[in-house]
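Support request, please re-run this one:
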Amino acid sequence: METINCGQARASHIGSKVSLYGWCRLLRDHGGKLFIDLSDRYGTTQLVFDGAAKTEAEKLGREYVIHALGTVRERSPDTVDNESKTGAVEVAVEYFELISESRVPPFELIPEKGRFLADEELRLRHRYLDLRRPKAVHNIVFRDAVTKEIRKFLWGRDFLELETPLLIKDTYETGARTFLVPSRLHKGKFYALPQSPQLFKQMCMIGGLDRYFQIARCFRDEDPREDRQPEFTQVDMEVSFKDEEYIMSIVEDMIASIFRNVLGKEIKVPFARMNYAEAFGTYGSDKPDLRFGARIEDVTREVAACGYRIVKRVADNGGRVRAMRFKADFGKPGSRVTTKQMLGLVELAKGFGLGGLTWLYMDGGSVRSEPPSIADALGTAAAAIASKLGAGDGDVIVMGADLSDRFLLGALGKVRKALGDMIGDFSTDYSFVWIYGFPEFERDEITGALKPSHNPFTAPTTETLEHLDAEPERVIGRQYDLVLNGYELGSGSIRINNPELQRRVLRRIGMSDETIDRHFGFMLEALSYGAPIHGGVALGLDRLVALLAGEENIRDFILFPKNKRQELLVDGSPTPVGTDRLREDYGIGNAGPA
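Re-run finished. Output below.
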């Protein structure tokens, strides 16, 4: 007797005795026969019970776990399921064993095609059941395949797979807060969970382990956001004695290997490169989606003499007016956007901070608007704008104005992304681009304080280092981000390998020598013992896998994800901890109630 899984039965097994284990997914009583779809992560096989076996099987229910023995036979032609790999055969059960009963599941686990998919919160509460759904199984298996390919590729390039500590020193970080872990043995002291393995992978380079990688668990105590998880996984890499181009080429070849060996597709390498100033000035974003055009153009001069006061007032006061064109077939049969959607986009733009949004469309060679008074007020400026943007019939023109050009570009970049997703007329499924030439520093939007644009360990370019003390915002970092379809997949840089330069950069963001030594003294000491030129990159594995699968929700590709409120519903965490326990075990006296 051959033991097979529930996705293996084929015509070649007809006449064979088989043994299967699985969950009873669908039960159908047809009078003289009982049919049960037996499922596991590999697929589904139809079992047939009749006679005495049927009588015994009538006690089975949905999601009961059984062991079945029987003979594979051909299905009758009118019952063949061509959408299933096992759909040409069934197993006539001669004996079965009940292994485990099941309560009635709170939602259906059968294939979702044409069926209602339960609310995500309910599925995350019962994630162990949700994982039995075919789509959920596919997502987790796909993630596994991508991860295996990453490992095989990097092992083949002589990278060492290393593990850095998860309980580490609490150091100064930019952006998100750090999760703290109290120590029982050292009462009143804390470990931190790493936001990334940054300093430890640099110390690997100082230690001479010149090619490092890690499928690294990272933790960030961020405010809840739709696409973020407080714990996530990075494909983390670092190399010595190499430059940016080498690191980018390694990543490109690795991703091409994933496409070839997991997706069965070929992609073009090297990926496109774009300077940060060009990306932001042209697309209003440092992570532009290049699957469509819609470049943002300056049309301030074109509107200077028009009668449309909303934009002319901004231009007259030194502000900028910018516009972009979308191919939308507007006003034609099969148009990809409607007037209602455009009005919704105006409200979305207000949410991005713009006072409003002007939109026009081309029809019969003329620029039109709703209401028509907008095009009338623009007068000859409307045709000049359309000509500058190269607009043709059916195209939509979106225009915004603001006294701050940088703010305007950023807001229009968000509008561009939203409208691009709405239209969906993409030139390719996957558009990769490296963004480089980021400023080393930026100003905090609230306090105005200088802070690193990425992290404080990025080396400045040799050409701009001279501005570090007097004009730090002119310093360019040796930083590079990989963008896919408008999402940042990963970020990397060439690191500072000189302890004095590292101290200067930390001072420049407002840290005193005392603070530097308290937080980073161990790292500066390590750098003083002959640090090589080194750099690396970290790719978000959760996001990479989701985008390669053509999805956006990273929670679908995480085994046990947190919800949007950062709660792990399957076990109810986070939960309160008693005051007495915190005081006695950890020396923490101001804990909240249990």
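The mean pLDDT is 94. The chain has 17 helices and 23 strands.
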